[in-house]
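ESCALATION

Customer reports they have been waiting on this structure for their group meeting. Please prioritize. Original submission:
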Amino acid sequence: MIEGEMKNKGATPADIQATTETTGKNENDRHLTRNMIVAIVAVTAVIVCQYTFTSWVPTLLVQRGIEVDSSLGFSTVMMLGAPVGAFIGTTLVDKVGRKPTIISAFVLAAVLGIAYAYQTSSIGVMVIGFTLTACFYVLMAVVVAVYTSELFSTTYRFRGAGIANGISKLVTIGMPYAVARMLTTVGSTTIFFTIAGMAIVAATVVMIWGPETNQRVI
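Update from on-call: job pushed to the front of the queue and completed.
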């Protein structure tokens, strides 16, 4: 690839490297605030939704009348979606692109979250729960591991990714209290609608303001 660029432009490898690094830096730095907002929203939505669902699913199942022993078994089956989702994410992130993968996974997570809230059969709970977990880990693999860092130039990458992840962790700290409050006041269905709402907001933010970073110099 470098050799092809050298041949077409008559430049040395040092010239091409300097040019691409400067271009990538300027592009990311020009939109630093926008990219920071995209990173914070996307990472927070992924971490909060994933934590809320995977950590509270046994309690949520018990709330819906499923016995403790059965709920733990269901949780185990659903968590098998984690490695499946991570594998799918790593497969799609380069072939399909960052933005299409992220937006599709967020929208599917929102749809499945609402569908899960109305499941009454054991098979439905496990199948949709497994698929929903897979969606969350597609997002973990793509948003947290890849996309967030690519939103920032080398100068700001550590700080940008650190701020986005730090804010998401701060929000996550308050989630147990929020979930417990919702369980006692409005019921478990509202929790799944909250997850769906956060996923839709994040999908919209990435779709409108998020840059596609696949095969782009950063």
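Sent to customer with the following note: Residues 32-63 form the longest helix (32 residues).
Escalation resolved.
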